[in-house]
């Protein structure tokens, strides 16, 4: 492994622990509050919690793998025989990124055929993006990293374009009260997803040794917390507002909503 | 144990971790969403979650047993004194396979006598299949493996035939809206179950050493995720559609359903 300092080792471990706490809190919040939205939005909120739950599991594994990969001896950091396992992130992403897309599609309440076609298309593109990124991630060679990064960028740009433009055009079909929130979700997807692509390039654009490891691990942790936990809360807020528009307050149908049901 | 490489050891460990995440996510999804289906389908959805929950437990054990069975020293993989325990899979299957059959029978909503006779018959056959497979699984001898494989194939073929043909003939009694999903469940059972039988034969048809171990462990992990988690989601989708046909939306009875209740 690269020449990490004890300070860098600690910072990375602390960010992993922060991610565990944030993902656990978001999972609990979303699952406890799912009954606060109208029944038709509960799937979106449940899946938002599921994404954070899967990430919670993987951050536990990442944290254990990290603390097991080094030991401190007379103030110096030494690599142990157990290596840090980068694969946990990619296993996490292959499960959570398609689900993130599903939670966004579900809360938009598109037509059934649109929901299915969009879900399948974006889900497959997301899987391709992550599978193409992995060979680059585990390589120490900048040329190899750029190659796989470029390949992964093809489905990446397709998804982001599809969501960013697609959500914009469907804004008009959303109730006025939620348009600014949906717009925020659009921008959050664009910015947080682009951040992953930038973090990937850190070792190729000047960061070396321990600084590269720190920049990548801290960068991915922040990106994960924003793209999963913060995004999940935003999905929940959209679900609450849309429920209110449809006559549900705190998950209970108003007499009017009950009558038109 | 066979001469595994560090890469093969890592791949197998990562598949076990993936299975933990997938089974945990499916358990949470199914149990959180059981209230979204009509009350008469909740047992099927609860049991689908139970199957994934039992598998979740066993994959935790399998993962620990795996990582404890080897250590890396100067870049080479060495077997420790703790051996990898194959029995966890068989204990899992003896509990989950009969339950998998029950969840399928329950969601079909057959007559009571059919439900009981089919459940008992298929459950006993499934137990016989798994008990007959185990002596072969723990043997390194191809002849012994073929013997027990052939014996296990008798109840296996009986179950698959019974389900595949039985479900086909009961398709006509299912509402039209769910026929394609029930048909998908039929094929998923056929393909994923056949995959187990094929994975078992990998060490007998040319895979040797570390490649055989990798093919078997990765193969069983994929088969388990498909046959339990993906199958469970399919059962849930069938339950949602049948609930809607019966006038239940998001688990709530429509006024019409309430009137005929």
Instruction: Considering residues with a beta carbon less than 8 A from a beta carbon on another chain, report the largest interface and each chain's count.
Output: A-B, 26 and 25 residues
N-to-C span of chain A: 61 Å
Strand order within the widest beta sheet of chain A: 1-2
Rg of chain A, Cα atoms, Å: 20 Å
Estimate percent helicity of chain A.
Answer: over 70%
Structural key phrases:
homodimer; 261 residues; mainly alpha; two-stranded antiparallel sheet; two-stranded antiparallel ribbon; 8 helices; globular
Description:
Two copies of one chain form a homodimer. In chain A, 76% of the residues lie in helices and 5% in strands. With 261 residues, the first copy, chain A, is mostly helical. In chain A, strands 1-2 form a two-stranded antiparallel sheet. A two-stranded antiparallel sheet of chain A has the order 3-4. In chain A, α1 packs parallel to α7, α2 runs antiparallel to α7 and α3 runs parallel beside α7. Chain A is globular and about 70 Å long. The termini of chain A are far apart. At the A-B interface, α2 and α3 of A face α1 and β1 of B.
Task: Itemize the secondary structure elements and their pairings.
2 copies of one chain form a homodimer.
Chain A (H helix, E strand, L loop, with lengths): L5 H27 L9 H28 E4 L2 E4 L7 H22 L3 H26 L4 H29 L8 H23 L7 H37 L2 E2 L2 E2 L1 H6 L1
Antiparallel strand pairs in A: 1-2, 3-4
Helix pairs in contact in A: 1-2, 1-7, 2-3, 2-7, 3-4, 3-7, 4-5, 5-6, 6-7
